[in-house]
Amino acid sequence: MLEVYKLTLGQLNTNCYILYSKVSKHCVIIDPADEASLIYEKIYLLNLKPKLIVATHGHFDHIQAAAELKLFYKIPFYLHKKDLFLLRHFRKSAIRFTQIDPGPAPEVDAYLDKKIAFGEIELSVIETPGHTPGSVSFYSKRAGIIFAGDLLFYGGGVGRYDFSYCDKNKLFRSIRKVLKLPKETLIYPGHGEETNVEFEQVCHKHGLLRDITEG
Ligand SMILES: [Zn+2]
Ligand SMILES: [Zn+2]
What we know:
This protein is of the alpha/beta class. The protein has a single domain, classed as 4-Layer Sandwich (Metallo-beta-lactamase, Chain A), CATH 3.60.15. It has six helices and 14 strands. It has helices at about 35-45, 65-75, 85, 90-100, 170-180, 195-205; strands at about 1-10, 15-20, 25-30, 50-55, 75-80, 110, 115-120, 120-125, 135-140, 145-150, 150-155, 155-160, 185-190, 195. The structure holds zinc ion (ZN) (2 copies).
């Protein structure tokens, strides 16, 4: 019995998701975007026990509350190894985009591997690179949900691929991979509203999915 609570945080309106088990009350914090106090408050009100902080990728707007939450809950923070380089630009990027100094980058305690599991919560870590080299999606087949970060957005939107380290081909390939999941799979993106595989398949029918063999 997994539940999802969404908070939209920070100047870039980034979605932070609290994924929790109704039974054990264990929770994982996905993309601790900003405003740690609001995340803390919700976790407190829901009476949850945080176990882990993870990020779909290393962009500053998805991890600005990670350091504070780590300190507060004494729980680890996981990121994909290939996005570690982004942490070197964390502080500078945040200041450039928001004019606010977020403090030092959060420390990464472990690299994301194939799975995250604790209590009855189990998530597959699917590599979905392109927006950044180390972008991942967190998928629960059982619950029929996927947290896709900045891979794709409601109504046929795709993640940015105009930074020097982006890879448009990889991004499109990653989107196709996710759109092959069961139709009813709910997609929770890094910005904006939820969507699902079936709807996005329709949105991409004349574009990305036109030639599925292309890669
Ligand atoms: Zn991003
Ligand atoms: Zn983002």
